[in-house]
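Good morning N.,

You mentioned wanting to compare the apo and holo forms, so I went ahead and generated the holo version with guanosine-5'-triphosphate. This is what I fed in:
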Amino acid sequence: MALNCGIVGLPNVGKSTIFSALSGAPAEAANYPFCTINPNVGIVNVPDKRLAVLTELFKPERTIPAAVEFVDIAGLVKGASRGEGLGNQFLSHIREVGVIAQVVRCFEDADIVHVNNKVDPESDMETINIELALADLDTLAKRRDRAERALKVQAKTEQKAAGTVLAALDKIGPALETGKPARSVSLSEEEKAAVYDCHFITLKPQLYVCNVDEEGIRSAAAGKDTAHVAAVKKRAAAEGSEAVVICGKFEAELADIKELLEKMAFLEELGLKEPGLDSLAHAAYRLLGLSTFFTAGADECRAWTIRAGDSAPKAAGVIHTDFEKGFIKAEVYSYDDIVQYGAEAKIKEAGKYRVEGKEYIVRDGDVMFFKFNV
Ligand SMILES: Nc1nc2c(ncn2[C@@H]2O[C@H](COP(=O)(O)OP(=O)(O)OP(=O)(O)O)[C@@H](O)[C@H]2O)c(=O)[nH]1
Ligand SMILES: [Mg+2]
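and this is what came out, ligand included:
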């Protein structure tokens, strides 16, 4: 699975605005549909309080956060799966990402064109989800043809493989036909592997991003939902997906402020503790199945990204391939240990400083030091 998050939604709902605020990368955002044609790619830092605490303790020369890639994709309209709008081009870009963030317009602003001339999150989500399901049905039909041909002419082992493909497609097809995502179907590991090459869009984890106005932000800060946000959350809950609330316009202004105190004052004015974008970066990171370990020292404190479940040598390999090849052992303690004991020496005294070997599965929040030879 690609380790990135694609931003999708109807045209002109604020995808590029949110992307720019997130990544600091310029992306053209303008008040007309299909402003974006080619996808914009940007690297987004994943905010992590733990890294700030480590920096406070180690006072390193530099601090480097974990990052995740976001891709801002062209708007999708009804009929895209049949080539409407930017149609197929758009869909191929979505096929390449690991997870999907669907931006839903929840802001009222008569000056900003809505492609259906009405702010209606429920109908917008339905439009997008149906197009994604139709695109997958198209892929499914092609794959089925291929598997059926293989059944007739190929050797026994290939026939067996084609049988597994068909069994998976028989489960996915009826779901897609009723507008349900492929991810709602329960497949065996073997079936999942068999249809991996289809890159079904609706098999990817999805989260919803409510792009709200100032009223929406104030309501969210007060723990309440506007009717539009409630509609998105209802759908998300029914699918077992997450929904985050963001005001694209406000986040864009906030991202432009470099002075931290000024930033905090701006946030406070709206009753917020942290930028809404942080929750989006965190949600994408989690849905991608990523996990963080740290290296900490006087020269550098750094958060590194691994897949949840990776072993110690794999984690070492993220730093340098030589570290993985020549891996001997890892010295490990947890972030919670350093918070509790305040210094590495104290962790050692308490007997919490561990030495782990090749089989060790790295846990989120481990602070690691690798021993290797090359
Ligand atoms: N009022 C308001 N306007 C917004 C908000 N977010 C984006 N906009 C405006 O909406 C218009 C469209 O924003 P874009 O970010 O270009 O939208 P997009 O979804 O990338 O559009 P396409 O690339 O055409 O699909 C711009 O004029 C933005 O300034 C918001 O939260 N509130
Ligand atoms: Mg755009």
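The first helix runs from residue 15 to 23.

Happy to go through it together on a call whenever suits you.

Best,
F.
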